[in-house]
Amino acid sequence: MNSRERLVAALDASLERISQYHRTFGARFPTMGKMGLYQLAPNDNWLAGFWTGLLWLAYGATEDEDLCAHARELLPSFQERLDYRIHITHDLGFLFSLSARAQWQCTADDPARVLALRAAEELVQRFRDPGCYIQAWGEIADPEEGGRTIIDAMMNLSLLFWASRETGDPRYQQSAQQHAETSRRWLLRPDGASYHTYFFDQESGKPLGPRTHQGYADDSLWARGQAWAVHGFAVAAEWCQEQRFLDASQLAAERFMAELPADGVPTWDLRLPSNAPRYRDSSAAAIAAAGMLRLAQLDAGGREAEYLGWAQGLLDSLLSHCFETYPGAQYLLRNATVHAHKGWGVEEPFICGDYFFLEALLMLQGRAPDFWGP
Ligand code: GLY
Questions:
Q1: Which of 6, 161, 228, 372 is least crowded, fewest Cβ atoms below 10 Å from its Cβ?
Q2: Is any ligand 1 atom within 6 A of the Cβ of residue 152?
Q3: Is the CB of 214 within 6 Å of ligand 1?
Protein backbone atom coordinates (compact mmCIF):
# COMPACT_ATOMS: atom_id res chain seq x y z
CA MET A 1 0.00 0.00 0.00
CA ASN A 2 1.28 3.48 -0.75
CA SER A 3 0.98 6.30 1.77
CA ARG A 4 -2.31 7.60 0.38
CA GLU A 5 -3.89 4.14 0.47
CA ARG A 6 -2.66 3.57 4.02
CA LEU A 7 -4.24 6.83 5.15
CA VAL A 8 -7.57 5.95 3.49
CA ALA A 9 -7.50 2.52 5.15
CA ALA A 10 -6.77 4.16 8.53
CA LEU A 11 -9.70 6.53 8.03
CA ASP A 12 -12.06 3.65 7.24
CA ALA A 13 -10.80 1.68 10.25
CA SER A 14 -11.18 4.74 12.52
CA LEU A 15 -14.75 5.43 11.44
CA GLU A 16 -15.73 1.81 11.89
CA ARG A 17 -14.11 1.72 15.32
CA ILE A 18 -15.91 4.87 16.50
CA SER A 19 -19.28 3.49 15.35
CA GLN A 20 -18.59 0.30 17.31
CA TYR A 21 -17.40 1.76 20.61
CA HIS A 22 -19.06 5.17 21.05
CA ARG A 23 -22.11 3.92 22.96
CA THR A 24 -19.96 2.17 25.55
CA PHE A 25 -19.07 5.59 27.06
CA GLY A 26 -22.74 6.45 27.68
CA ALA A 27 -23.24 9.97 29.03
CA ARG A 28 -19.62 10.31 30.07
CA PHE A 29 -16.67 11.78 28.18
CA PRO A 30 -13.40 10.03 27.32
CA THR A 31 -10.47 12.20 28.37
CA MET A 32 -7.00 10.62 28.53
CA GLY A 33 -5.72 7.09 28.94
CA LYS A 34 -4.52 5.21 31.97
CA MET A 35 -2.86 1.87 31.22
CA GLY A 36 -4.24 2.13 27.68
CA LEU A 37 -7.89 2.65 28.65
CA TYR A 38 -9.76 5.94 28.44
CA GLN A 39 -10.61 7.52 31.78
CA LEU A 40 -14.21 8.77 31.62
CA ALA A 41 -15.41 12.02 33.19
CA PRO A 42 -18.53 14.15 33.41
CA ASN A 43 -18.60 17.36 31.38
CA ASP A 44 -16.43 19.34 33.79
CA ASN A 45 -13.08 19.88 32.05
CA TRP A 46 -11.56 21.39 28.89
CA LEU A 47 -11.71 18.18 26.85
CA ALA A 48 -15.45 17.48 26.56
CA GLY A 49 -15.86 19.14 23.15
CA PHE A 50 -13.34 16.85 21.49
CA TRP A 51 -15.62 13.89 22.13
CA THR A 52 -18.73 15.56 20.65
CA GLY A 53 -16.54 16.96 17.86
CA LEU A 54 -15.31 13.47 17.04
CA LEU A 55 -18.90 12.21 16.97
CA TRP A 56 -19.91 15.04 14.62
CA LEU A 57 -16.93 14.43 12.32
CA ALA A 58 -17.76 10.73 12.19
CA TYR A 59 -21.46 11.46 11.63
CA GLY A 60 -20.62 13.80 8.74
CA ALA A 61 -18.56 11.06 7.10
CA THR A 62 -20.83 8.07 7.74
CA GLU A 63 -24.34 9.51 8.20
CA ASP A 64 -24.73 6.98 11.02
CA GLU A 65 -27.77 8.47 12.80
CA ASP A 66 -26.77 6.89 16.10
CA LEU A 67 -23.63 9.07 16.18
CA CYS A 68 -25.81 12.14 15.64
CA ALA A 69 -28.23 11.04 18.37
CA HIS A 70 -25.37 10.44 20.81
CA ALA A 71 -23.80 13.85 20.21
CA ARG A 72 -27.19 15.54 20.61
CA GLU A 73 -27.82 13.75 23.90
CA LEU A 74 -24.62 15.29 25.28
CA LEU A 75 -25.52 18.91 24.45
CA PRO A 76 -27.55 19.62 27.64
CA SER A 77 -24.38 18.98 29.66
CA PHE A 78 -22.73 21.87 27.77
CA GLN A 79 -25.63 24.14 28.67
CA GLU A 80 -25.10 23.14 32.31
CA ARG A 81 -21.47 24.23 31.99
CA LEU A 82 -22.75 27.77 31.43
CA ASP A 83 -25.78 27.62 33.76
CA TYR A 84 -23.71 26.45 36.72
CA ARG A 85 -20.42 28.04 35.64
CA ILE A 86 -18.52 24.76 35.70
CA HIS A 87 -14.81 25.30 35.02
CA ILE A 88 -15.20 28.43 32.87
CA THR A 89 -11.91 29.33 31.18
CA HIS A 90 -10.71 30.44 27.73
CA ASP A 91 -11.45 26.82 26.68
CA LEU A 92 -15.04 27.82 25.94
CA GLY A 93 -13.95 27.97 22.30
CA PHE A 94 -12.80 24.34 22.19
CA LEU A 95 -15.88 23.27 24.14
CA PHE A 96 -18.59 25.04 22.18
CA SER A 97 -17.12 25.09 18.65
CA LEU A 98 -17.04 21.30 18.73
CA SER A 99 -20.40 20.80 20.41
CA ALA A 100 -23.01 23.53 19.93
CA ARG A 101 -21.58 25.11 16.76
CA ALA A 102 -20.89 21.67 15.26
CA GLN A 103 -24.43 20.53 16.07
CA TRP A 104 -25.93 23.63 14.49
CA GLN A 105 -23.70 23.16 11.45
CA CYS A 106 -24.56 19.47 11.02
CA THR A 107 -28.29 19.63 11.82
CA ALA A 108 -29.37 23.32 11.54
CA ASP A 109 -30.54 23.06 15.16
CA ASP A 110 -31.24 26.66 16.22
CA PRO A 111 -31.11 26.14 20.03
CA ALA A 112 -27.57 24.78 19.54
CA ARG A 113 -26.63 27.97 17.66
CA VAL A 114 -28.09 30.09 20.48
CA LEU A 115 -26.08 28.12 23.04
CA ALA A 116 -22.86 28.62 21.06
CA LEU A 117 -23.56 32.36 20.96
CA ARG A 118 -24.11 32.38 24.72
CA ALA A 119 -20.69 30.74 25.16
CA ALA A 120 -19.11 33.34 22.87
CA GLU A 121 -20.58 36.11 25.03
CA GLU A 122 -19.02 34.47 28.09
CA LEU A 123 -15.68 34.12 26.30
CA VAL A 124 -15.53 37.73 25.11
CA GLN A 125 -15.85 38.85 28.74
CA ARG A 126 -12.38 37.38 29.28
CA PHE A 127 -10.80 39.91 26.91
CA ARG A 128 -8.50 42.12 28.96
CA ASP A 129 -7.85 45.68 27.91
CA PRO A 130 -5.17 47.06 28.42
CA GLY A 131 -2.94 44.23 27.30
CA CYS A 132 -5.40 43.11 24.60
CA TYR A 133 -5.45 39.40 25.37
CA ILE A 134 -7.94 36.77 26.43
CA GLN A 135 -7.27 35.72 30.00
CA ALA A 136 -6.64 32.00 30.06
CA TRP A 137 -7.49 30.71 33.50
CA GLY A 138 -9.09 31.75 36.77
CA GLU A 139 -11.72 34.35 37.58
CA ILE A 140 -11.48 37.54 35.54
CA ALA A 141 -8.82 39.85 37.03
CA ASP A 142 -7.72 37.15 39.47
CA PRO A 143 -4.54 38.48 41.14
CA GLU A 144 -2.51 35.37 40.13
CA GLU A 145 -4.04 34.50 36.77
CA GLY A 146 -5.51 37.76 35.47
CA GLY A 147 -2.36 38.70 33.60
CA ARG A 148 -1.85 35.39 31.85
CA THR A 149 -2.67 34.30 28.34
CA ILE A 150 -1.52 31.12 26.59
CA ILE A 151 -0.80 30.02 23.04
CA ASP A 152 -3.65 27.46 23.22
CA ALA A 153 -6.12 30.37 23.33
CA MET A 154 -5.49 30.91 19.61
CA MET A 155 -7.72 27.87 19.09
CA ASN A 156 -10.58 29.43 21.03
CA LEU A 157 -10.86 32.52 18.83
CA SER A 158 -12.89 30.84 16.12
CA LEU A 159 -15.97 30.85 18.38
CA LEU A 160 -15.65 34.64 18.60
CA PHE A 161 -15.09 35.17 14.87
CA TRP A 162 -18.08 32.96 14.18
CA ALA A 163 -20.26 34.84 16.70
CA SER A 164 -19.60 38.15 14.96
CA ARG A 165 -20.58 36.68 11.65
CA GLU A 166 -23.76 35.19 13.11
CA THR A 167 -24.88 38.25 15.04
CA GLY A 168 -23.36 41.14 13.10
CA ASP A 169 -21.93 42.41 16.41
CA PRO A 170 -18.26 43.34 15.76
CA ARG A 171 -17.17 43.05 19.44
CA TYR A 172 -16.29 39.36 19.21
CA GLN A 173 -14.27 39.72 16.01
CA GLN A 174 -12.44 42.77 17.33
CA SER A 175 -11.42 41.05 20.57
CA ALA A 176 -10.34 37.89 18.75
CA GLN A 177 -8.32 39.83 16.20
CA GLN A 178 -6.59 41.88 18.90
CA HIS A 179 -5.81 38.75 20.89
CA ALA A 180 -4.32 37.10 17.79
CA GLU A 181 -2.13 40.16 17.21
CA THR A 182 -0.97 40.18 20.85
CA SER A 183 -0.10 36.48 20.58
CA ARG A 184 1.74 37.01 17.32
CA ARG A 185 3.75 39.79 18.89
CA TRP A 186 4.60 38.31 22.27
CA LEU A 187 3.99 34.56 22.24
CA LEU A 188 5.75 33.87 18.96
CA ARG A 189 9.54 34.29 18.93
CA PRO A 190 11.39 35.55 15.83
CA ASP A 191 12.31 31.97 14.85
CA GLY A 192 8.63 30.93 14.95
CA ALA A 193 8.88 29.06 18.27
CA SER A 194 5.97 29.72 20.62
CA TYR A 195 6.00 30.35 24.33
CA HIS A 196 3.39 28.37 26.20
CA THR A 197 2.11 31.05 28.58
CA TYR A 198 2.87 34.74 28.88
CA PHE A 199 2.13 37.37 31.53
CA PHE A 200 1.07 41.00 31.17
CA ASP A 201 0.77 43.61 33.88
CA GLN A 202 -2.94 43.79 34.62
CA GLU A 203 -2.98 47.53 35.26
CA SER A 204 -0.81 48.83 32.44
CA GLY A 205 -0.92 45.94 29.96
CA LYS A 206 2.87 45.96 29.83
CA PRO A 207 4.32 42.62 28.65
CA LEU A 208 6.16 40.92 31.51
CA GLY A 209 7.47 37.70 29.98
CA PRO A 210 6.97 34.00 29.32
CA ARG A 211 6.39 31.23 31.81
CA THR A 212 5.77 27.67 30.75
CA HIS A 213 3.12 25.44 32.25
CA GLN A 214 3.33 22.17 30.32
CA GLY A 215 6.65 22.66 28.51
CA TYR A 216 10.08 21.66 29.77
CA ALA A 217 11.24 25.24 30.49
CA ASP A 218 10.13 28.83 29.94
CA ASP A 219 12.31 29.13 26.84
CA SER A 220 11.93 25.59 25.47
CA LEU A 221 9.33 24.55 22.89
CA TRP A 222 6.25 22.72 24.15
CA ALA A 223 5.19 20.60 21.18
CA ARG A 224 1.41 20.82 21.52
CA GLY A 225 1.61 24.57 22.02
CA GLN A 226 3.54 24.85 18.77
CA ALA A 227 0.85 22.81 17.03
CA TRP A 228 -1.84 25.11 18.50
CA ALA A 229 0.06 28.04 16.99
CA VAL A 230 0.13 26.45 13.51
CA HIS A 231 -3.59 25.64 13.52
CA GLY A 232 -4.78 28.70 15.44
CA PHE A 233 -2.99 31.32 13.33
CA ALA A 234 -4.15 29.61 10.12
CA VAL A 235 -7.77 29.85 11.28
CA ALA A 236 -7.28 33.49 12.33
CA ALA A 237 -5.82 34.24 8.89
CA GLU A 238 -8.92 32.78 7.25
CA TRP A 239 -11.37 34.80 9.34
CA CYS A 240 -9.41 38.07 9.27
CA GLN A 241 -7.83 37.81 5.80
CA GLU A 242 -4.63 39.03 7.51
CA GLN A 243 -1.30 38.22 5.89
CA ARG A 244 0.44 38.62 9.27
CA PHE A 245 -1.49 35.72 10.74
CA LEU A 246 -0.83 33.57 7.70
CA ASP A 247 2.89 34.35 8.00
CA ALA A 248 2.74 33.46 11.71
CA SER A 249 1.16 30.09 11.00
CA GLN A 250 3.69 29.35 8.27
CA LEU A 251 6.63 30.31 10.49
CA ALA A 252 5.28 28.15 13.32
CA ALA A 253 4.84 25.22 10.90
CA GLU A 254 8.43 25.54 9.67
CA ARG A 255 9.74 25.59 13.24
CA PHE A 256 7.62 22.54 14.15
CA MET A 257 9.02 20.55 11.23
CA ALA A 258 12.60 21.73 11.81
CA GLU A 259 12.65 20.47 15.41
CA LEU A 260 10.89 17.12 14.95
CA PRO A 261 12.75 13.96 15.99
CA ALA A 262 13.95 11.74 13.14
CA ASP A 263 10.96 9.35 13.37
CA GLY A 264 8.55 12.24 12.75
CA VAL A 265 6.70 11.87 16.09
CA PRO A 266 7.12 14.91 18.34
CA THR A 267 8.44 14.56 21.84
CA TRP A 268 6.31 16.45 24.41
CA ASP A 269 8.78 19.31 24.20
CA LEU A 270 10.86 19.83 21.05
CA ARG A 271 13.81 21.36 22.91
CA LEU A 272 14.65 18.80 25.58
CA PRO A 273 18.06 18.49 27.19
CA SER A 274 19.64 15.04 26.93
CA ASN A 275 18.75 14.07 30.51
CA ALA A 276 15.00 14.81 30.18
CA PRO A 277 12.49 12.03 29.51
CA ARG A 278 11.63 11.82 25.81
CA TYR A 279 7.92 11.00 26.01
CA ARG A 280 6.11 11.21 22.72
CA ASP A 281 3.12 13.46 22.08
CA SER A 282 1.15 12.06 19.15
CA SER A 283 -1.56 14.70 19.70
CA ALA A 284 0.86 17.47 18.72
CA ALA A 285 1.51 15.74 15.39
CA ALA A 286 -2.22 15.32 14.74
CA ILE A 287 -3.02 18.98 15.51
CA ALA A 288 -0.08 20.22 13.43
CA ALA A 289 -1.10 17.99 10.50
CA ALA A 290 -4.65 19.40 10.57
CA GLY A 291 -3.22 22.94 10.74
CA MET A 292 -0.87 22.32 7.83
CA LEU A 293 -3.72 20.91 5.73
CA ARG A 294 -5.52 24.17 6.41
CA LEU A 295 -2.44 26.10 5.29
CA ALA A 296 -2.35 23.98 2.13
CA GLN A 297 -5.87 25.20 1.32
CA LEU A 298 -5.00 28.87 1.79
CA ASP A 299 -3.06 31.04 -0.59
CA ALA A 300 0.25 30.19 1.08
CA GLY A 301 2.64 31.87 -1.33
CA GLY A 302 2.98 28.88 -3.64
CA ARG A 303 3.98 26.56 -0.80
CA GLU A 304 0.67 24.71 -0.60
CA ALA A 305 2.14 21.41 -1.88
CA GLU A 306 4.88 21.58 0.74
CA TYR A 307 2.35 21.91 3.59
CA LEU A 308 0.32 19.06 2.16
CA GLY A 309 3.48 16.93 2.06
CA TRP A 310 4.38 17.85 5.65
CA ALA A 311 0.89 16.99 6.86
CA GLN A 312 0.92 13.70 5.04
CA GLY A 313 4.38 12.92 6.47
CA LEU A 314 3.17 13.59 10.02
CA LEU A 315 0.14 11.36 9.51
CA ASP A 316 2.37 8.64 8.04
CA SER A 317 4.59 8.78 11.13
CA LEU A 318 1.51 8.51 13.35
CA LEU A 319 0.35 5.47 11.38
CA SER A 320 3.76 3.82 11.69
CA HIS A 321 4.31 4.48 15.40
CA CYS A 322 1.09 5.45 17.21
CA PHE A 323 -2.05 4.25 15.41
CA GLU A 324 -3.75 1.51 17.39
CA THR A 325 -4.63 -1.53 15.29
CA TYR A 326 -5.96 -3.77 18.08
CA PRO A 327 -9.57 -4.40 16.93
CA GLY A 328 -11.16 -3.95 20.37
CA ALA A 329 -9.47 -0.59 21.07
CA GLN A 330 -11.66 2.34 22.13
CA TYR A 331 -9.28 5.02 20.88
CA LEU A 332 -7.34 5.81 17.71
CA LEU A 333 -3.86 6.97 18.75
CA ARG A 334 -1.51 5.88 21.51
CA ASN A 335 1.48 7.88 22.76
CA ALA A 336 0.08 11.31 23.58
CA THR A 337 1.39 13.21 26.57
CA VAL A 338 -1.09 15.49 28.28
CA HIS A 339 0.97 16.93 31.13
CA ALA A 340 4.45 15.48 31.60
CA HIS A 341 5.26 17.34 34.84
CA LYS A 342 2.09 16.15 36.56
CA GLY A 343 2.28 12.64 35.09
CA TRP A 344 -1.14 13.02 33.47
CA GLY A 345 -1.74 10.88 30.40
CA VAL A 346 1.91 10.19 29.61
CA GLU A 347 2.32 8.14 26.40
CA GLU A 348 -1.38 7.34 26.51
CA PRO A 349 -4.46 7.82 24.30
CA PHE A 350 -5.87 11.36 24.43
CA ILE A 351 -9.26 12.44 23.08
CA CYS A 352 -7.83 15.69 21.71
CA GLY A 353 -5.30 13.72 19.62
CA ASP A 354 -8.02 11.39 18.35
CA TYR A 355 -10.19 14.36 17.33
CA PHE A 356 -7.45 16.07 15.28
CA PHE A 357 -6.24 12.79 13.78
CA LEU A 358 -9.75 12.17 12.41
CA GLU A 359 -10.10 15.82 11.33
CA ALA A 360 -6.81 15.56 9.40
CA LEU A 361 -7.63 12.20 7.79
CA LEU A 362 -11.01 13.55 6.66
CA MET A 363 -9.49 16.81 5.43
CA LEU A 364 -7.07 14.85 3.26
CA GLN A 365 -10.08 13.28 1.56
CA GLY A 366 -11.93 16.61 1.34
CA ARG A 367 -14.63 15.16 3.62
CA ALA A 368 -14.22 17.16 6.86
CA PRO A 369 -16.92 19.57 8.01
CA ASP A 370 -15.09 22.70 9.18
CA PHE A 371 -15.96 23.59 12.77
CA TRP A 372 -13.23 26.27 13.03
CA GLY A 373 -13.10 28.34 9.87
CA PRO A 374 -15.63 30.67 8.18
N1 GLY B 1 -4.99 23.33 26.12
C2 GLY B 1 -4.32 22.51 27.06
C3 GLY B 1 -3.43 21.53 26.45
O4 GLY B 1 -3.20 21.55 25.24
O5 GLY B 1 -2.94 20.69 27.17
A1: 6
A2: yes
A3: yes
Catalytic residue list contains 91: yes
For the question of residue 218 being annotated catalytic, the response is: no
Instruction: Tell whether ligand 1 has an atom less than 6 A from the beta carbon of residue 306.
Output: no
Q: Which of 352, 355, 356 to mutate to test the pocket of ligand 1 (most atoms within 8 A of CB)?
A: 352
Instruction: From residue 80, give the alpha-carbon distance in Å to each of 12, 88, 119, 168, 185.
Output: 34, 11, 11, 26, 36
Cα gap 144→350, rounded to integer Å: 29
Alpha-carbon distance of 268 to 287, in angstroms, equals 13
Per-residue b or e along 244-274, where b marks 16 or more CB atoms closer than 10 Å to that residue's CB: ebbbbbbbbbbbbbebbeeebbbbbbbbbee
Q: What is the pLDDT of residues 251-291, one digit of tens each?
A: 999 999 999 999 999 999 999 999 999 999 999 999 999 99
Question: What gap in Å lies between CA 90 and CA 157, rounded to an integer?
Answer: 9
CB–CB of 330/24 below 8 Å? yes
Quote the crossing angle between the two packed helices 157-167 and 110-124, to the nearest 10°: 120
Three-state secondary structure call for residue 47 = coil
